Request: fold
Amino acid sequence: MNQSLRSVLSATTLPIPGVFNALVALAARDAGFRACYISGGATSVCAGVPDIGLLSLDHFCILIREVARASALPVIADADTGFGDEQMTRRTVIEYAHAGASCLHIEDQVFPKRCGHLEGKELIPVEQAAEKIRWAAQAAREVDEERAAGASDRFIVCARTDAAGVEGLDSAIARARAYIDAGAEMIFPEGLQSEQDFETFARAMRDLPGPSARGGPFLLANMTEFGKTPMLPLARFDELGYDCVIYPVSMLRVAMGAVTHALADLHKAGTLEGWLDRMQTRQDLYRLVAYDPKQPWRFPAR
Reply:
C-alpha cells in the first residue's frame, strides 16, 4: 500500500527528488527518500519533445502508475495547466489519483505553457485560475469519498503560481491567497529569485488556513539547476519555512551528463571498459527490482 504525502510531511522540510521512470523511483526509495516527484519537463524531454504541454493526460498517468506501483512512494505529479479547461482539470485530478498520485500541481500560465524559469511567460486571469483550482479541489473531495480516504491520506491539490516573474512577488502572494480560498492546500511559488523572496512569500502564507504543521498551507519550493532560483541547501529552505523541496530534473541531468560522456567515449574508443566502475552492476540492478533469476518474480510487498 502506498503511503500518502500527508503522512510523510512534518515540521521538517521534506526533500523530494524528481524521477523520470520507475527504476529511478526505486533508486530514490532505496536511498531513503520518502516521496518522489514527476516533472512535466523531465517527462516531456524523455519523450523527445520540449516542455510546452505536448504530452497527453494518458502519457502522464501511465508514468505515475508505474512509479507509484513500483516504489510505493507518495508521488507529487506535475499537471501543467490541467490539460484544458475546468472539466479537464477535474478529470486530471481523478485520473492522477486513480493512477496512484498523492498530489498534483496546476499552474496559472496560458497554454502553451513555458518552463517556469524562462522569460516570456503569460498568465491566465486570477479568477480563471482560481476556478480551475475550485474544480480540482471538488474532484479531490469526490475521489477521497470514493475511496473512503481518512484525514491522513486525502489527495492534495497544489496551486503553482508563476506570477512572481511576470507581475511581481506581491501578485504571486495575492494569487496564492485566491487559490487557497478556492481550495488549494499546497502552494508552489515558481521562479523566485532570492532567499528574501522565499522568506517574504512564506511569511505571507503562514496566517492563512491550511494543513501545514508550521501553520497555513503546505509550501513547496523548487530547487532546479540553471534557473532563476539560487542554489539553496535543504536546511535553508527549512529555516525559510517550506514544507517540501522538489529537485525536478536533477537526476535526469546527472544521468544524461553521464550518458553523453559515455557515448562519446564509446564512439571514440570502441569500448566502455573504462566505465565499469561507474556503472550500476547487474547484481545491484537485480536487487533494486527485487529479481532473483532462480525464483519466479512478483511485485514485492511494500
Summary: DSSP finds ten helices and eight strands in the chain. The domain at 14-256 is CATH 3.20.20.60 (TIM Barrel).
